[in-house]
Write a structure and sequence with these properties.
single chain, 161 residues, alpha+beta, Immunoglobulin-like, five-stranded antiparallel sheet, four-stranded antiparallel sheet
Length: 161
């Protein structure tokens, strides 16, 4: 029971910081993910698959003095698991008949696939690993600036239940 409690507490926020760049990760429960998209027009049976996945909410901040950029395709969860590209979700939603307004809301709420940040910029959004990861894992977030390529590795987190 103690181990289970420890794993559940890991399912809360994990963070990493390097220089003046900060990444915070918070796993969302199935109920949170489903409620968010049900309120935006997703049919319940369609959003259920998304909600069962390991939905992660990210906050990424550039509090430094130079611009930086990242591609979500360069980020990994756990032992090299990539994040499901936004285009795959969009194709699935279209095939399943999700209304256009709900698809737009989905796109705007997802973590951007590519982003350039000026000094002081920040963004929030959701992303899902290509597969659900059992147990605790870390997020490795890669980005670059005029000084080269960098990596942030978060504290351990876990998929919410």
């Amino acid at each position: 029971m103690l181990l289970r409690h420890a794993l559940l507490s890991l399912a809360f926020a994990a963070a990493a910081a390097q220089a003046e760049v900060t990444l915070t990760v918070k796993p969302l429960s199935r109920q949170q993910a489903a409620a968010f998209y049900l309120a935006r027009g997703f049919p319940a049976e369609v959003v259920a698959a998304y909600a069962r996945a390991c939905v992660l909410s990210f906050s990424f901040r550039n509090e430094g003095k130079i611009a930086l950029r990242f591609k979500l395709a360069d980020w990994t969860a756990g032992n090299g698991v990539r994040f499901r590209p936004l285009e795959k979700w969009e194709t699935e939603w279209e095939k399943r008949g999700v209304p256009p307004a709900a698809r737009i809301a989905f796109r705007w709420a997802q973590f951007p696939p590519v982003q350039e940040f000026e000094a002081g910029d920040w963004i929030m959004g959701m992303a899902v690993p290509e597969r659900r990861i059992a147990g605790p894992f870390r997020i490795t977030a890669r980005y670059s600036d005029e000084k080269g390529r960098h990596e942030l590795v978060t504290a351990a987190t876990a998929c919410a239940r």
